[in-house]
Amino acid sequence: MTQPEIQPHPLPLVVSVQSQVAFGHVGNSVAAYPMRACGVEVVEVPTALLSNHPHYPTMHGAILDADLVGGLLTGIAERGVPARASVVLSGFLGREETALALAGFLRRAKAENPGLTYLCDPVMGDADLGFFTDEPLRRAFAAELVPLADVILPNAFELETLSGIAINGASDVARAREALGCPAVVATSVPVEGQPERLATVVATRDFCRSFDVPRLPVRPVGTGDLLAGLTAARLAQGVALPQAVARAVAGVAQALRRTSGQPWAEMPIAAALPAILAADWQETGQQPLPSPADLLS
Q1: What is this structure's pTM?
Q2: Cα–Cα distance for residue pair 134/284, rounded to 1 Å
Q3: CA 204 to CA 211: how far, in whole Å?
Q4: Interhelix angle for 224-237 vs 270-279, to 10°?
C-alpha cells in the first residue's frame, strides 16, 4: 500500500542581508547558524566577502558591488522569497548604492507581503572605533532604510548619530525613537545610570520602554550585535513578541560572551556555546523575570 506523501509544514523564513567572512564570526557568519538552530529557514544575501574581520593584522576579500548585491536580491525575489518571508534583517551594507538597492527590494517586498517585518541594524560605527562607513551610506540609512524599518537595532553611538540625541540611559532611547518616528528601537550598549559596571539593551516602542542590563565583561569580540539581531529576528519570525525576543537574545549573547577568551577581538565560540545560547532565558542573567505581554502593554 502506497503511503501518502507527507508535506512538511514550512518553517518561518528570514532574509539576512549582511557581510560574510570565511574565518570567524561576524555578519551572516555569526547570525545564520544560530537562526537556523532556532528553527527558521534563512536566505543569506552577502554584502561583503572577507577572509576575516578587520581587527586581525591582515584581511582579504572585498565589499561587494551594489549591482551584484542587487542582482542577488532580484534573484531571490524571482524565486518568490518576499511572499514567503516573515522577516528581512539587514546589517553591514558597505556602500550607499547597496543600501539604495535594498530599499527598493524592501518597498517591493512590503507591497507584495504587507505582513513582512523589516529589522534594520544600521551598522555605521561604535563609540570606541568611530565611524567605519562613509557619509553617503550614513545618509542612506537615515533617509531610506530607517523610515522603512519596523525595528531598528543600533548601538548607542549609532542611535545618537541617527537621532541627534545623546544616549545616556533608557529614557534617551525612548526620546530618540520618538524623534525618529520608528515603530520600535532596540538599542545596545546603553549606559545604566549609577551602575557603570553594567550595560543595557533597551527596547522602546510607542507603548513601552524596557531595559535589560547585564554586567560588563572583560571581553571585546566582534559580532555581538549581529548575533543579537539574528536571535531577535529568528524569534520574531516564530511569532514571539519583541520584548521577549530581545530578552532571550540578550541572555543568549551573554552565554556566548561568558565563553569568549579575554584576548583582544577574540572570536565567540558559537558552535560550542550554541546549546547554551538557544536555551538561555532572561531569568538566567540574574535579573527579575520578564513581565507578561499584558504587563508590558499596560
Answers
A1: 0.91
A2: 39
A3: 9
A4: 40
All structural domains of the chain, each given as residue ranges with its CATH number in brackets, are: 13-291 (3.40.1190.20)
pLDDT tens for 79-117 read 999 999 999 999 999 999 999 999 999 999 999 999 999
Contacts of 248 (CB under 8 A, 6+ apart): 231, 235, 240, 280, 281, 282
Nearest to 250, CA basis, from 271, 231, 275: 231
Q: Which three cell numbers stand for residue 209?
A: 520602554
Which residue type does 1 have?
A: M
The whole-number pLDDT of residue 287 equals 45
Q: Which tens digits make up the pLDDT trace of 206-261?
A: 999 999 999 988 888 889 999 999 999 999 999 999 999 999 999 999 999 999 98
Specify whether the CB–CB gap between 53 and 43 falls below 8 A. no
Query: Does residue 296 have a pLDDT over 70?
Result: no
Between vectors from CA 182 to CA 146 and to CA 92, what angle results, nearest 5°?
Answer: 30
**C-alpha to C-alpha distance for 151 and 155, rounded to whole angstroms:** 13
- pLDDT tens by residue, 18-62: 999 999 999 999 999 999 999 999 999 999 999 999 999 999 999
Closest C-alpha among 143, 125, 115, 118 to residue 16: 118
C-alpha cell at 140: 542612506
The dihedral sign for the CA sequence 194, 204, 279, 256: negative
Q: Which three cell numbers stand for residue 242?
A: 519583541
On whether the CB atoms of residues 160 and 124 are closer than 8 A, the answer is no
CA distance 38 to 33: 9
